[in-house]
């Protein structure tokens, strides 16, 4: 069996986001970039399936600028076997990503296609769902457990107030939630080995996908600044302020 894992290059989740002065987007200059955290969980799950003997090969794909090869190499260091970088300097949108991933998944005949449930930069939560629809295959989104049994996969999904388990025929699309696993750290020898693993470069045109955007970002604004808090001297003072100033009790 083969797995395809989609990894997006995003601003690192520890970095405080700066909005550009003209409100046209987020300032990415001199900013630490990483694999989207949910995609790291997807890579880890694929590696665990390989270690369990379920999967033989893991292909990692990223669509983005040249620098996205850093995130592909990071996934290769975690245990993926080879990478595909689809080069574009345009901002890609979920439908374009899904169309490209569909071509890769079909040409590689992958059985399990793992994506993050959402990319933490644009928060779309659309690509996995669109990919499954375009391919006409089942989807298990927000996965907290994945169990492959023969030509089926059982995916336990995090839903409001509980869990739901669905059985999907393979091939299937799975999107990862936070509790699926805890990704490992890459070991130095594996980081060195990853440099030698194959990494193919393609363009969206190779897949017949037009990157012209059908939407325009009008404005990006940072969250409102929170007012500084105060320290109260006693519980009585706290209760008084809650009662008479904040009027919440
Ligand atoms: P989104 O629908 O944008 O929230 O993204 C959901 C998931 O789709 C991500 O967690 C990735 O697994 C995948 N994805 C989105 N954009 C890209 C990209 N540019 N390259 C590779 N995978 C992507």
UniProtKB/TrEMBL annotation:
Short name of any one Pfam family annotated for the protein: ETF
Asked if the Swiss-Prot or TrEMBL record annotates the protein with the keyword Transferase, the reply is: no
Tell me the domain of life: Bacteria
Where is each Electron transfer flavoprotein alpha/beta-subunit N-terminal domain found?
A: 23-211
Which Gene Ontology terms cover its molecular function?
electron transfer activity
- Cross-referenced SMART domains: ETF
Query: What family name appears in the similarity comment?
Result: Belongs to the ETF beta-subunit/FixA family.
Task: Tell me the subunit arrangement.
Answer: Heterodimer of an alpha and a beta subunit.
Query: Which protein is depicted?
Result: Electron transfer flavoprotein subunit beta
């Amino acid at each position: 069996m083969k797995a395809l894992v989609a990894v997006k290059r995003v601003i690192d989740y520890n970095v405080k986001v700066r909005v550009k002065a003209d409100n046209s987007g987020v300032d990415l200059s001199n900013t630490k970039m990483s694999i989207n955290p949910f995609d790291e969980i997807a890579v880890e799950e694929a590696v665990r399936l390989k270690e369990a003997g379920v999967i033989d090969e893991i292909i990692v794909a990223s669509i983005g600028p040249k620098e996205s090869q850093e995130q592909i190499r990071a996934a290769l260091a975690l245990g993926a076997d080879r990478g595909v970088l689809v080069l574009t300097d345009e901002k890609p949108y979920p439908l374009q990503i899904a169309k490209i991933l569909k071509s890769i998944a079909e040409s590689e005949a992958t059985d399990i296609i793992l994506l993050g449930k959402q990319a933490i930069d644009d928060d779309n939560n659309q690509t996995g769902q669109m990919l499954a629809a375009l391919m006409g295959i089942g989807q298990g989104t927000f996965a907290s457990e994945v169990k492959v049994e023969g030509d089926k996969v059982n995916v336990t999904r995090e839903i409001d107030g509980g869990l739901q388990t669905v059985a999907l025929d393979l091939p299937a699309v799975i999107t990862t939630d936070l509790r699926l696993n805890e990704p490992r750290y890459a070991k130095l020898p594996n980081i060195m080995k990853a440099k030698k693993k194959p990494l193919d470069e393609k363009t969206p045109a190779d897949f017949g996908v037009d990157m012209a955007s059908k939407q325009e970002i009008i404005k990006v604004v940072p969250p409102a600044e929170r007012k500084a808090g105060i320290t109260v001297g006693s519980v009585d003072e706290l209760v008084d302020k809650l009662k008479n100033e904040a009027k919440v009790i």
